[in-house]
Amino acid sequence: MTALYGWHRGERAIQQKLGHSGPVSNQYTAVRSALDEQHREFHTTRLPFVPVTTLDGEGRPWGSILAGSAGEPGFINSSDWERLEIRAKLWPGDPVLTNMQDRGSGTYSDTDLLLAGIGIEFSTRRRNKFAGYVDGVEQSGEDVSLQVRVNEAIGNCPKYINIRELLPSVTRPVVTHDQRHIFDSQERLPEVVTDFIHQSDTTFIGTTYRATKEEERRYPSHVGMNQRGGRRGFVRVRPSDGRTVVLPDYSGNRYMSSLGNIEATPLASLTFVNFRTGDVLYLTGEARNVVAPEAYRIMPGQRALTTIFVTGYVLVTDALPVRERPGTLPIQSPYSPPIRLLADELSTSTSRFTPDDNTTALLTSIRIHNPSLATFTFKASSDITCQAGQAAILDFTSLLGAVAYQHMAASKPSSVNDDRVRTWTISQIHGPREFSLTMREKQGGAVTGTLFSIVRQLQARRPDLLQDATPMQLSLSLIGISGEFVIGHASSKKLLWLAGGVGVTPFLSMLRWIGFEGAAGEEWDIVLVLSTREPDVMLSLISEALQVSEKRAENRWLRIDLFSQEPPNHLDSPKAAGWDVELQLHSGRVGKGVLRDLSVEGPIHREVFICGPESFESAALQAASDVGVPTARVRRENFAF
């Protein structure tokens, strides 16, 4: 037995770091010493495979995938509440093979081959964890029978499981990479491994708890297996060393069993599966839990995460004997928050802050464009460095208060991981400390809803504070300035911008930069394709951005193709010294084939920037692809929140 007598020192430590120790102090009683009848039935009749954790001869955890030869349920039996009999067909490269060899053969004691697993039915999000040890093994070639004595079991939450329909598949496994020990401290992961991680939306995390002699009676050594899910690419690899994997921690049941094991024994494994091809990637390494403010320096905006410095990896193609049904796509969990990039993935010229810097942003004025669109101007407490097109990362906790913990929230899943941190593209840079954010009120949005509520109250009672909001002393923590959606990275002065609605904001700051700072003596040829329901407001914002221009420059061309259901009231093209502006009006929305229809000159030779909500981004990407624009020439900035 392990957690049955309470949380061990690692679990208590991480619970305390994250402020969970009080609420979960007695919840270890949810862990059972055996499988109940429902879970026995689940494992024996519902699962085509089960991820498990075992240790190698050095005590490093490795994840494995155990499955029957046909990719069907029924390869697991349970003769009693404390036992699972797993009859699996192993494929070359799976770490459980060498881990069993490291431990010898025959009968195993609980210190010889610890094992933990997690059963997941991906079509229903149902799952159950178990742990114990192997006390019997029979092996004949690739066929193995494991007698598992279960001493821990718990039903687990389905929050971050992406739904998949899986079918049995015939496999031909091939080990393409097998480096179980990386001895060179400077060695990087192969690009194929990094890409595999960045394309994944699911990983299985294996951990271990190595008890001291003083602890082993109450908290004996054990291993753990758990699942982590999110949006594709939620797990990142640090480009600075090409070897440290970063796993963000999302709001869960607060037991912190996996992170607790890492806190006490800093090792972990990650196993990734490509459910379309059956390829499996196994990693093991040195693990560390990181919480804010240090976590912000690694992944801006993420309060807690785990880093794994990889010390071994194996990649096997065509191994898993199940596949996603052809023509289907996984259904993303509504609880998964937007992906956050690593600080290392941002431009080296990016200016970043952490709360250690005590950098704040004071609201100084509000300009209302219409009832749901306004520009908020802030003044930072210290100088910042910002490029046109970058974004501000702000913590709104001081305005909204911290979010109370909730395990599930069916009516609003996004609220579960709402840490009050938001990222907005800067629409205007006024100087070394002052910047503006043009925001739209999002229906049900915690941050924009509150801000626009303040706007409406000021309109009705204190309109003077819209011009000078400093008396309100509304100050936010400025976590950082980030982003690579910057014009300074463009290798060409021929650009194609596609903007959906308020997605025009980064282009406003770019126009100002071109007109004032970055265009002396240079020719700029820009096509802006803008889809909006508010043509007059958007054209007014563009016109203002164009006014920031030096009269001596006469070598800038801007063509605006405006798509809207309603034509603007004013049909004149925006005017500005130094710009030759052409406005063309179109009815409807931006869709497939639009660039071909517009006869944009040389789109394949232009660098393409796309900013807008997901539906617009998808249509714009397709439109660019239709005219042969290489993906490498497309930069994207969508709305995560």
From TrEMBL:
Residues 498-620 form the Oxidoreductase FAD/NAD(P)-binding domain. Gene3D superfamilies: Electron Transport, Fmn-binding Protein, Chain A, Nucleotide-binding domain of ferredoxin-NADP reductase (FNR) module. One of its GO terms (molecular function) is oxidoreductase activity. It holds the Pfam family NAD_binding_1. InterPro entries: FNR_nucleotide-bd, OxRdtase_FAD/NAD-bd, Split_barrel_FMN-bd. This is Oxidoreductase FAD/NAD(P)-binding domain-containing protein. It comes from Pterulicium gracile. The lineage of its organism: Eukaryota, Fungi, Dikarya, Basidiomycota, Agaricomycotina.
